[in-house]
Amino acid sequence: MAKKSTETTDRPKERAFLVGVEIRSEEHLLSLEDSLEELSLLADTAGLVVVGEATQRLDRPYANTYIGSGKVEEIKALVEDCLAEVVIFDNELSPRHLRELEKEFGTAVRIIDRTALILDIFALHANTREGALQVELAQYEYRLPRLTRAWTHLARQAGGGGGRSGSVGGVGLRGPGETQLEVDRREIGRRISNLKSELEKIRAHRSRYRANRRRSQIPVIALVGYTNAGKSTLLNRLSNAGVYVADQLFATLDPTTRRVELPGGQVVLFTDTVGFIQKLPTQLIAAFRATLEEIAEADLVLHIVDITHVNALAQWNAVQLTLKEIGADQIPALTVLNKIDRLPDPQAAMQVLQNFPDALAISALKGQGIDELLALVQKRLYEELLPISVRIPYTEGQLISLFHESGQVERIEHQRGSVMIDGSIPGRYITRYMPFIHSGDLEPEEE
């Protein structure tokens, strides 16, 4: 299926044509049409205007151009009619696909994919040195296998560090400047190595910071969710954090942590993290490892969901997949259905609560349900005991003592070098014991 937009008015923005492909053998969180609609929102966030789109369903991608030759010719005609300057594929293109498509469409039209578009948006919103380094690393790792003479169009201006050095249509990807993009593979490889080294230092610093935080025994609650679900709005509501909020994808990128007092007087830390999205580029997950570890080591995860979105459940599943990928799927979690103030009937949110585990409904913007949310957070962290089975080395004597002092020991078995404990502990301590989780019955170690 293909169609041409009725958009004909000249605009200063670059004109983009979208291509969505559904591979029947692959699993899809969103339908082809819904995924393409999301791609349109991404394009708008990147400063492009969408002037047309085309879709195709295939059993498998074509070896050369990903889509069939007939579809290529059809899109070329539509692109010419729409005066489009950039074609964006909703699927990640291999280096070969990219090269062949660039040959087909010629130098007047640029070809990029969803991954390149998301990297561009992240570069736009990276406002700290750490964020800029993470995005630059992800960009280089994406570009390296695709490095050809055709990529020189990406380097008309110097950029990086979150500044807007042109749009996808004009520059391709924000980030490294012209001289960096024209160096050979060895120079890019060296830059990747340097970036990884710098980010490893940041990761080590974060690790030391988290260790100090754990010693202070202040619980950490990570706010996670699909992009534009309302995490930053919720953090502002809870703490007057002043985090930038906008009705667009990836409005904020760099993590923000604020102290919040619970109803019982206990102080906790809420951390707002980067928004997730389906098909989140693996390069970004790897580059943002230090940031995402903030989630993996949280004491409680609040999964924020935009209840007004038609694909709310699919978005919830997309975030769950990413949490599993970063090793945060075992952390105690609450699902928070946000934006009930936008529903014609706010009570309708109650009917869908059963579709989500451990869920409650709120409006972060209007403050509805916030008191109930904080009370539930307090209950999970301080009042509920969670069952757990662990094998703790004797070298971790503090954890063994903590279990006896704050938890309930149901069964204990001393072994050579470690102790097996079956019992329950307060939710705020669960992440401390995660490295020592033992699955199955308590059995003695083999001699």
Automatic annotation (TrEMBL):
Any GO MF annotation of the entry: GTP binding
Location in or out of the cell: Cytoplasm
Alphabetical list of Pfam families matching this protein: GTP-bdg_M, GTP-bdg_N, HflX_C, MMR_HSR1
Function of the molecule: GTPase that associates with the 50S ribosomal subunit and may have a role during protein synthesis or ribosome biogenesis.
Residues engaged in binding Mg(2+): S232, T252
HAMAP family (alphabetical): GTPase_HflX
Protein's recorded name: GTPase HflX
Source species, domain of life: Bacteria
Origin organism lineage: Bacteria, Bacillati, Chloroflexota, Anaerolineae, Anaerolineales
